[in-house]
Specification:
The chain is α/β, with parallel strands linked by helices and 263 residues long. It is built from 9 helices and 11 strands. Helix 8 links the parallel strand 7 and strand 8.
């Protein structure tokens, strides 16, 4: 396998782990968290104190090295999944790219975000979660009454290992039925992927058996527009059930004709 140049330390790690385990025709293989440490020592790489950041970056922020991408069939791509405590699986899955539709009309929402929150939000993900929460966008999107139960929930899922859910809501419909709503927030260049959606849904299935899961992803677009997606797993792929775009504006900028038009 040819070497890639200009790689960062996380890409160098996964490249070495991949080349030590992969052979032509292999569609999945496992490795341990301890392999990150031994490989880093071998390559002279300094690891972060939080080893989970290595996996998060490779899943959502950075691409695999070209040497790994070159082994992918045209309709498949490699993903890293949790496979138990401190254990991971590299697996070929069908390519999935969920991006906001550029041709979808946005809906104007009166901005209820406190100025103090906007001033001190630390990053895109935190700002996005706060905007969604204060403007009750989950309620608007799903037509439910929802309540934020916990954010940045770190827990474990059988067969997967440790996961983190960006925010977990509980919802109620007009008939009194309850829903569990895991929300993943993506800002900047982070991408919506099959791994986190699968983890969120499996968590709900194990922790809240019998309750309906409504998995949501929120993503920033240009001009501060928030795209919301409801996602499901179908044939081991992430599918979009519904997508809506919301633009938060001062009340004075609402178009009365548009407001009447929504009805």
């Amino acid at each position: 396998m040819g070497k890639s140049t200009g790689l960062n330390r996380y890409q160098l790690l996964i490249e070495r782990i991949f080349e030590s385990r992969w052979s032509k025709g292999l569609k999945e293989f496992y490795f341990e968290r301890a392999d990150l440490e031994s490989t880093a020592l071998e390559l002279g790489i300094t690891l972060p104190k939080n080893l989970g950041d290595v996996m998060y970056a490779l899943r959502y922020r950075i691409s695999f090295p070209e040497s790994i991408l070159a082994t992918q069939p045209k309709d498949r791509e490699w993903v890293i999944e949790g496979a138990g405590r401190a254990r991971y699986r590299l697996r070929l899955v069908k390519k999935t790219r969920i991006l906001p539709r550029p041709d979808l009309a946005w809906i104007a929402i009166p901005d209820a975000t406190p100025e103090l929150i906007r001033a001190y939000a630390l990053d895109d993900e935190q700002a996005l979660l706060a905007i969604v929460r204060y403007n009750r966008l989950i309620d608007t999107f799903l037509g439910l009454t929802t309540y934020s139960l916990q954010n940045h929930l770190r827990t474990t899922v059988s067969g997967i290992g440790q996961i983190e859910i960006d925010e977990l809501y509980i919802g109620l419909d007009k008939y009194g039925c309850h829903y569990v709503i895991p929300v993943q927030a993506k800002g900047g260049s982070d991408q919506i992927g099959v791994v986190q959606t699968t983890q969120d849904i499996r968590f709900v299935e194990q922790r809240f058996p019998g309750m309906r899961c409504r998995a949501i992803s929120a993503q920033f677009m240009e001009e501060g527009i928030v795209a919301l997606f409801e996602l499901i797993l179908q044939d081991d792929e992430v599918r979009v059930v519904e997508e809506r775009h919301y633009k938060l504006v001062p009340y004075s900028e609402l178009d009365p004709r548009a407001v009447r038009g929504y009805s």
